Amino acid sequence: MAIILGIESSCDDTSASICIDGKICSNIIAGQLVHQNYGGVIPELASRVHQQNIIPAVHEAISVAKIHKNDIDAVAFTRGPGLLGSLLVGTSFAKAFALANDLPLIEVNHMQAHILAHFIEENKPEFPFLCLTVSGGHTQIVLVRDYFDMEIIGQTTDDAAGEAFDKTAKLLGLPYPGGPLIDKYAKLGNKDAFKFPEPQIPGLDFSFSGLKTSIMYFVRDRLKENPEFLKENLNDVCASVQDRIISILLNKMKKASAQYQIKTIAIAGGVSANSGLRGALTDTAALLNWDIYIPKFEYCTDNAAMIAIAGYHKYLKNDFVGQDISPLARLQF
Ligand code: KG4
Ligand code: ZN
C-alpha cells in the first residue's frame, strides 16, 4: 500500500491531499480572498497566507482521509512553475515534513499535474492524447505520450487564456479572479452581440494580448458614447469575449488534432472549468469524432489531489528527490 501526501502552493490556493493506492481520499483547498480587490494575485500577500493555511490544510487532509500521519509513505509537492514565494512555503513544508518523518520527497511539475488530474477518476484517457492546458499563467497544447513523457507542441506567445479572462474582467470592473464571473454573466448574454478579432498566429501557438487591447479600446469608446454601456451590456460583452477566447483555443486544438492524427483530447487547468469551453468542446467532439476528457470541477483549478496523483505515479517509479531541492518559478518539462 502507498499513501502519498500531496502539497500545492504555487499561486493563491493552499491545498493538501491524501492519495491511497491511486485513490484520492481527501483534497482540502484553502483559497485567498485577500487578492480580490487588486485585480490579480499579490505575491507577497499570497506567501504570507500560505504560511497561515498550510498546517491546518494538511491536518484536515489527514483527518478527512481517516489516516494517521505515521501512515504516510511519501510527500509530493509542487516545485514549480508558480510564484517563488508561494512555492517556497509548500516546498519548505514538504521538506520539513519528510525530514521529520523520515519520508521520501517527490517533486511535481504543476502543469504536468493539471494534466495528470485526468488519472484521478475511473474514466482515464489512453496514451497518446492531446491536452489543452489552460490556466492563469499558462496556455499549452501538450502531446502526452505517457505519465511523464510530455511535449509542449503549442503555447501562448504572450498572455495566458486565464489572464485574458481576468484582465477582461478587470476592464469590465469585475473583481479578481474574473474568469468564473465572466462565465456566469456570459450564460445570460448573446455571444454574437459584439465581434472581437481572432489573432493570426502561425502553427499551434496562441496570442491573447491583441484581444485584450481590442477589448480595452472597445470599452473605452463605448463608454464615451454611453456611460451606462457596461451596466446595460455586461452579459453580452462577457458572452462575446468568452466566445472569442473559446474559438481561439478550439481552432488550435482542431489544427493540432489533424496534424498529430490524435483524436483523444483532454482539457485541464483553471479555465477548463469554463462552462462555455466545456460545452463547445463537447459540440466539437461530436462533429469531429473526438474522444474527450473534461475534469471534474474540483480538479480544474489548483488542487493538491493532482499533485498527490502525480506523486503516486512517481512513487511507483521510485522517482525521489533529495533535501537539497529548491523551488523553481519557471520549472520546465
Ligand atoms: O489552474 P488555475 O487554478 O491556477 C493557475 O495555475 O494559474 O487557473 C486559474 C485561472 C484564473 O485565470 C481564473 O480566472 C481561471 O482559471 N478560471 C476560469 C474559470 N474558473 C477559473 N476562467 C474562465 N471560466 C471559469 N469558470
Ligand atoms: Zn494551476
Strand segment count: 10
Instruction: Say what the CATH topology of the largest domain is.
Output: Nucleotidyltransferase, domain 5
How many structural domains are formed by the residues? 2
Strand content: 15-25%
- Percent helix: 40-55%
**Number of distinct helices:** 9
Structural class: alpha/beta
State the major sheet: 5 strands, mixed
The distinct ligands, each listed once, are: 5'-O-[(R)-(carboxyoxy)(hydroxy)phosphoryl]adenosine, zinc ion
Describe the structure.
- The protein has helices at 43-64, 84-101, 110-116, 161-171, 179-186, 209-225, 229-260, 275-288, 305-315, and strands spanning 3-8, 14-20, 23-30, 74-80, 105-109, 129-134, 139-146, 149-155, 264-268, 291-293.
- Strand 9, helix 8 and strand 10 form a beta-alpha-beta unit.
- The protein has 333 residues and is α/β, with parallel strands linked by helices.
- Strands 3-2-1-4-5 form a five-stranded mixed β-sheet, with helices on both faces. Strands 8-7-6-9-10 form a five-stranded mixed β-sheet, with helices on both faces.
- Helices cover 42% and strands 19% of the residues.
- It is globular, with a radius of gyration of 20 Å.
- It folds into two domains: 3-116 and 300-316, ATPase, nucleotide binding domain (Nucleotidyltransferase, domain 5); 125-294, 2-Layer Sandwich (Nucleotidyltransferase, domain 5), CATH 3.30.420.
- The model has no long low-confidence stretch (mean pLDDT 97).
- The two termini are 29 Å apart.
- The chain is built from nine helices and ten strands.
- Helix 1 (43-64) packs parallel to helix 2 (84-101) and helix 7 packs parallel to helix 8.
- The chain binds 5'-O-[(R)-(carboxyoxy)(hydroxy)phosphoryl]adenosine and zinc ion.
- Residues 11, 135-137, 162, 165-166, 177-180, 183, 269-271, 273-274, 301-302 line the site of 5'-O-[(R)-(carboxyoxy)(hydroxy)phosphoryl]adenosine.
